[in-house]
Amino acid sequence: LRFDEKVRVVVFKSEVKGVFCAGADLKERAKMDDAEVGHFVKRLRNLMDEIAALPVPTIAAIDGYALGGGLELALACDLRVAASSAKMGLIETTRGLLPGAGGTQRLPRCVGIGLAKELIFTGKQIDGQQAFSMGLVNHTVPQNEEGDAAYQRALTLAKEILPQAPFAVKMGKLAINRGMEVDIASGMAIEGMCYAQNIPTRDRQEGMAAFREKRPPQFIGK
Questions:
Q1: Are 151 and 59 contacting, i.e. CB atoms less than 8 angstroms apart?
Q2: Which of 38, 59, 66, 30 shows the shortest CA–CA distance to 161?
Q3: Are residues 69 and 150 in the same domain?
Q4: What's 96-135 look like in SS3?
Q5: Number of domain units in the chain
Q6: Dihedral pair phi/psi, residue 27, rounded to 5°
Q7: d(CA 14, CA 83)
Q8: What is the predicted pLDDT for the residue at 34?
Q9: What pLDDT score does 106 carry?
Q10: Which position among 15, 47, 86, 166 has the lowest Cβ density within 10 Å, counted as fewest Cβ atoms?
């Protein structure tokens, strides 16, 4: 996906009704020794980092349970859409663990330190509406009979992104992600570098021409 220029947006959904991702298999984990557990979690953390580093926008469609590593997967995405009946939580402390695939870092960056600490310390589960109220998800929707309401809303959101200039969107994502990790002066420099890369693109010229000619732009990602 990283190198496929035809890919504009990636939507993560589950094929299992009622479950987005239930996290690690604790029965499997129980059979591992300490070294194996450490290696497993490191690989999981690397996977989440790879998802977060995808150059195109990513959307998690949470139609059911997103617990532990399942919520960490959703947090690794740029945007999240949840059914109001979905259940989310970093429940690791209820099993003698702590989030190990990015949850302790991405959740506070998403909802703030106080709420993140409360959710991680208590291991509580929240529904889609509660997640929306605290900014954990971008949209919440009532679940439908098919059980894919979040996925359908995620597709609608993806279709809002698709017409926009692909390279500009990629540079926007890069500027935001890198800029959030540094002070604002450094972030401004990052934005400037990303903007400079966008200036010579054919899509920028097309955007200007379409505005002058009062027509929809036809972006090609170049």
A1: no
A2: 59
A3: yes
A4: CCCCCCCHHHHHHHHHCHHHHHHHHHHCCCEEHHHHHHCC
A5: 2
A6: -65, -40
A7: 13
A8: 85
A9: 97
A10: 15
Q: Does the residue 48 lie in any domain?
A: yes
Per-residue pLDDT at 29 exceeds 80: no
* Collapsed DSSP state (helix, strand, coil) of residue 61: strand
CA distance 81 to 151: 8
The verdict on residue 196 lying in a domain is yes
Q: Which residue range is the domain that position 95 belongs to?
A: 10-160
Q: pTM higher than 0.90 for the full model?
A: yes
29 and 118 inside one domain: yes
Do 85 and 174 reside in the same domain of the chain?
no
pLDDT digits (tens, 9 = 90+) for 170-204: 999 999 999 999 999 999 999 999 999 999 999 99
Mean pLDDT taken over the chain: 94
Q: Assess whether 146 and 189 both reside in one domain.
A: no
Strand partners, 93: none
Summarised one tens digit per residue, pLDDT across range 49-101 is 999 999 999 999 999 999 999 999 999 999 999 999 999 999 999 999 999 99
Q: With 0-12 CB in 10 A as exposed, 13-18 as middle and 19+ as buried, what is 24?
A: buried
Same domain membership, residue 126 and residue 59: yes
Q: How far apart are CA 115 and CA 89, in angstroms?
A: 12
Judged against a pLDDT cut of 80, whether residue 24 lies above it is answered with no
At CA 76, angle to CA 128 and CA 118, rounded to 5? Answer: 55
Catalytic annotation, residues = 24, 69, 72, 92
